[in-house]
Design goal:
- The chain is 47% helix and 18% strand.
- It is an alpha/beta fold.
- The strands form 8 sheets. Strands 1, 2, 3, 4, 5, 13 and 14 form a 7-stranded mixed β-sheet that branches. Strands 20-22-23-25-24 form a 5-stranded mixed β-sheet, with helices on one face.
- β22 and β23 form a beta hairpin.
- α3 packs parallel to α4 and α9 packs antiparallel against α10.
- Bound molecules: adenosine-5'-diphosphate.
Length: 615
């Protein structure tokens, strides 16, 4: 027992639930279920409805409508940059690939526009199969950029983009994400300072730990409140529309499906993918708003699981029935509410492992309690049944001698009887009352032994001695039927109460005599091994029907053959023998064949010390 009511098996089951729950939680299915819950919680907690801090300048369908539009992005880009410069955005992040040589004249125009624009961030991305390298914009463009930022919106295995890795590396060459560079520039920070727990960007602390690969969960804007978008062609044709960019970060990119940019699913997608530039803008919004989500550390996750486990295990040990299930259900509800509550405070709890652990523990603790209670009820039922049967037998069996006693005493008192007849009746009364007395004594002995109320006077007892005494006691009975008793023994010490053991053997012997024909032989044997002493009584008697074998140890049970044999009995002898053997930590077995004989074998634990050394 660990502490009152709690057992080691409980701990075993709790540990099993913990391991199985964690395996379920960490399986592919568990991980995917957690992602679905994360998406749900993200949608349930959208960012506050307020104007976006960035603007997407979109190469949309309208802008790219002229033939070859997708091939000629630099020219309109240069024109748009010139317009933007007049409206003083905080930064302009250009999510376009500017690595190709392209047309010289167009490049010169773009270079000029870049030189005139402030705080431009250009895109860099990883390329190459064998050796991964950063592809950078042409040097002519690069030299006018305030920063380079990577534009990889790494989706999870299910193709949904939930996080952006803020620091990506090709070998030892690391680049910050474009959204992070946009934050740095808009914060007016010189550099990004790394700590184990996160990044310091000006006054903003971004809690992306090194352990989590500096991955930032993106809190996407609600589709009804998306990041504001301007069509690039509108800005060129109607420059006043660009007034919206003042004091905000502009993200320039292609937003048509089939364009050069990757289209990815998001937790809000419902089948509608989002362009890379929008994802980057959403990442920037997350950073600029400072509404960060952090994963609950695995140690805390484990702690919650263990606490839930212990709570449930203790609940089902200390309480029972409806109360236990009510408290268990309350704990389950609490656990299920945890991810919702924690999410509100910016914490993402990997829920499936905890839920699996808690449910397994609830089912195993609850199930075991149910089985335990059912077992108790069954035992109580069986005990009640046994008691009723015993009462039935007691009244039935005791009535027979009582009736004889009553009838006989009435005869004596009512009628004048000859002396010889009176003597005969008096003897009958005496023998019946002795039988009745024995019955009561034996019945009480069985009950007291079973209840552990008859203490054993335990010593090291010689099996040989026990058998010799009981054989001698039963010999007069055997002689009457000309039955021979053979005693074959080896020395062997039993740890037990000599008187009770003699009584048990005497009972087996008298049974063997009673239920055997005249002139047969009874063999009594004792042998021992390192652990036990075995005592067997074998007869050549009537035997016991197989169907009766399991019942003969029950109180008052007598087989039909026994009842018809004319031998008197109470049906209590074997019940008493069995109780004596059980109290000695031993077992009793019977092998029998109808008409061939029976063998009763007692297996009793050996005494470790010789008689002299035992108290
Ligand atoms: P009883 O007082 O009837 O002998 P026991 O409890 O000693 O009661 O035995 C229960 C029943 O088991 C007996 O009535 C008899 O039917 C059967 N039995 C016990 N020992 C033997 C035996 N050696 N051979 C055949 N039947 C036996």
């Amino acid at each position: 027992m660990l502490f009152p009511g709690l057992r080691w098996t409980d701990l075993g089951f709790a540990l099993g639930s913990l391991l199985a729950g964690l395996v379920i939680g960490w399986s592919a299915l568990g991980v995917q279920a957690d992602r679905a819950l994360y998406d749900f919680l993200l949608r349930l907690n959208p960012p506050p409805a307020e104007p976006s801090r960035s603007v997407i300048l979109a190469f949309d369908d309208k802008t790219l409508a002229p033939p070859g539009g997708l091939q000629r992005l630099r020219e309109p880009l240069a024109q748009a940059l010139a317009v933007l410069a007049r409206h003083k955005p905080k930064a302009v992040a250009i999510d376009l690939v500017l690595t190709e040589p392209g047309d010289e004249k167009v490049n010169a125009a773009l270079e000029e526009a870049l030189a005139a624009a402030d705080n431009v961030i250009l895109a860099t991305h990883l390329a190459g199969a064998e050796e991964v390298l950063w592809l950078e914009p042409l040097p002519a463009f690069r030299k006018h950029a305030a920063a380079l930022g990577h534009v990889h919106a790494a989706p999870d295995e299910d193709g949904v983009s939930r996080r952006i890795v803020l620091a990506k590396a090709a070998g030892s060459d690391r680049r910050w994400a474009m959204a992070l560079e946009a934050l740095r520039i808009s914060e007016g920070a010189e550099r990004i300072v790394e700590t184990e727990a996160g990044l310091d960007v000006g006054d903003v602390f971004v809690p992306v730990s090194n352990r989590e690969d500096r991955a930032l969960p993106i809190r996407y804007a609600h589709p009804s409140q998306p990041v504001e978008r301007l069509s690039l062609i509108d800005v060129i044709e109607n420059p006043s529309t660009a007034a919206a960019v003042r004091g905000r970060v502009v993200f320039v990119g292609v937003v048509v499906a089939g364009g050069p940019d990757q289209y990815l699913m998001t937790p809000y997608s419902y089948g509608q993918a989002m362009s890379g530039v929008e994802i980057n803008a959403n990442a920037y919004e997350t950073l600029a708003r400072g509404s960060f989500l952090q994963a609950v550390p695995p140690s805390i996750e484990l702690l919650i699981s263990v606490l839930a486990l212990l709570g449930l295990t203790v609940t089902f040990r200390l309480l029972s029935g409806k109360r236990a299930f009510a408290v268990g259900a309350a704990l389950l509800i609490l656990i299920h509410a945890a991810p919702f509550v924690l999410f509100r405070f910016g914490w993402v709890l990997p829920f499936v492992p905890i839920a699996a652990v808690t449910w397994l523990s609830f089912l195993s603790s609850g199930g075991r309690q149910y089985l335990r209670l059912r077992g108790h009820f069954r035992e109580a039922d069986a005990a009640r049944g046994r008691y009723q049967r015993a009462i039935h037998y007691v009244t039935h069996e005791m009535r027979t001698p009582l009736t004889t006693i009553q009838g006989s005493s009435e005869l004596i008192s009512r009628y004048p009887l000859a002396e010889e007849k009176r003597k005969e009746i008096a003897e009958r009364i005496h023998s019946e009352s002795v039988r009745l007395g024995r019955m009561v004594d034996m019945f009480l002995s069985v009950e007291r032994l079973a209840a552990g109320q008859l203490g054993l006077n335990t010593k090291a007892v010689q099996a040989e001695e026990v058998l010799r005494v009981s054989v001698e006691r039963s010999r007069p009975l055997a002689d009457k039927k000309n039955i021979q008793i053979e005693l074959i023994t080896q020395p062997g010490l039993i740890r037990g109460d000599a008187e009770f053991l003699e009584y048990a053997c005497y009972n087996l012997l008298t049974n063997a005599v009673k239920y055997s024909p005249a002139h047969s032989t009874i063999t009594v044997r004792a042998d021992s091994d390192s652990q036990n002493v075995r005592i067997s009584v074998t007869d050549e008697g009537y035997g016991v029907d197989e169907a009766d074998l399991k019942d003969i140890f029950q109180r008052f049970y007598r087989t039909q053959q026994a009842r018809e044999s004319g031998e008197r009995g109470t049906g209590l002898g074997l019940a008493l023998v069995e109780e004596i053997v059980i109290q000695h930590g031993g077992t009793i077995e019977v092998e029998s064949r109808l008409g061939e004989g029976s063998r009763f074998t007692l297996t009793l634990p050996r005494a470790a010390q010789p008689a002299a050394g035992v108290q």
